[in-house]
């Protein structure tokens, strides 16, 4: 990882838009603070389209896309898109209604199996807003021992599901996309981007192992400082890292981009 000061003017000016994670990237321990919220508006005013790419529920994004200066959101780790249409929003799942229903049934069965095998582990408190995945709380309201998190992950994989881990949740899904492939598909569908060019024209900001796919896929990637806690779990590190953590780090990245593009 290189310091943020190493980002060059040519690379910054070559960007078409910015993708970013939410938890512990824009949000600071779940709170949207003044610096990060102002940075979103500053980036929008500087002409950069903004797309959230998050493991959080699509129901959350229905609110965020209405109220934040976003061009859309890729939610539930790549599976469900939320876009603004006029004064409202549209939710776009991946697949036909029958396919979505079949994957949801498999997910419900997995949740029941985990409840029997590991009854002390709780679902995340945002699970009712999810359409395509499920999340268990490993570090938001409770802090699970690492051995329990690993055991939960093994159980999920044994049932044929894909699992990802953020700073607060362990996710399970039977969907086809991860954060990176979902983001690229979103950019193709909503902005007409060629997938081969999108990874060079859009940057990504993240903080944890849940962002690994995007760190690997996109050329220009940024980590807020707290990404350092996950370096041993990331096969590809972000290209640049901020000095500040979480929302303050996001604001630092925004200031740097805006200054270099002016």
Report on the structure:
By secondary structure, the chain is α/β, with parallel strands linked by helices. It has 2 domains: 2-94 and 177-261, 3-Layer(aba) Sandwich (Rossmann fold); 97-173, Hypothetical Protein Ta0175, Chain: A, domain 2 (Alpha-Beta Complex), CATH 3.90.1070. Helix content is 39%, strand content 19%. It has 9 helices and 12 strands. It has helices at 9-13, 34-45, 58-67, 97-117, 146-158, 179-191, 195-201, 212-217, 246-261; strands at residues 2-3, 17-20, 50-53, 72-75, 80-85, 88-92, 133-137, 162-165, 169-173, 202-206, 221-223, 240-241. The strands form 2 sheets. A 9-stranded mixed beta sheet has the order 1-12-11-10-2-3-4-5-6, sandwiched between helices. A 3-stranded antiparallel beta sheet has the order 7-9-8, with helices on one face. Strand 4 and strand 5 form a beta hairpin. Helix 2 packs parallel to helix 9 (246-261). The radius of gyration is 18 Å and the shape is globular.
Secondary-structure map with pairings?
Elements: E1 2-3, H1 9-13, E2 17-20, H2 34-45, E3 50-53, H3 58-67, E4 72-75, E5 80-85, E6 88-92, H4 97-117, E7 133-137, H5 146-158, E8 162-165, E9 169-173, H6 179-191, H7 195-201, E10 202-206, H8 212-217, E11 221-223, E12 240-241, H9 246-261
Parallel strand pairs: 1-12, 2-3, 2-10, 3-4, 10-11, 11-12
Antiparallel strand pairs: 4-5, 5-6, 7-9, 8-9
Helix pairs in contact: 2-9
């Amino acid at each position: 990882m290189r310091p943020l000061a190493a980002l060059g003017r040519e690379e910054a000016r070559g960007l078409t838009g910015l993708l970013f994670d939410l938890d512990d990237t824009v949000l600071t321990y779940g709170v949207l603070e003044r610096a990060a919220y102002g940075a979103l508006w500053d980036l929008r005013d500087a002409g950069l389209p903004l797309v959230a790419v998050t493991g959080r529920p699509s129901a959350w994004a229905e609110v965020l896309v209405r109220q934040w200066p976003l061009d859309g959101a890729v939610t539930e780790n790549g599976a469900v898109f939320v876009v603004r249409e006029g004064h409202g929003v549209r939710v776009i799942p991946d697949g036909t209604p029958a396919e979505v229903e079949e994957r949801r049934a498999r997910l419900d069965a997995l949740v029941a199996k985990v409840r029997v095998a590991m009854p002390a582990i709780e679902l995340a408190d945002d699970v009712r807003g999810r359409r395509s995945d499920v999340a268990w709380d490993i570090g938001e309201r409770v802090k699970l021992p690492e051995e329990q998190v690993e055991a939960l992950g093994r159980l999920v994989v044994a049932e044929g599901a894909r699992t990802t881990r953020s700073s607060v949740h362990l996710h399970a899904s039977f969907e086809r996309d991860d954060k990176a492939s979902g983001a690229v598909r979103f950019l193709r569908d909503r902005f007409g981007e060629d997938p081969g060019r999108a990874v060079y024209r859009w940057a990504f900001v993240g903080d944890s192992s849940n962002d690994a796919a995007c760190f690997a896929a996109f050329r220009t990637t940024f980590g807020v400082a707290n990404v350092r806690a996950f370096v041993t779990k990331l096969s590809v590190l972000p290209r640049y890292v901020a000095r500040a953590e979480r929302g303050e780090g996001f604001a630092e990245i925004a200031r740097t981009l805006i200054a270099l593009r002016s």
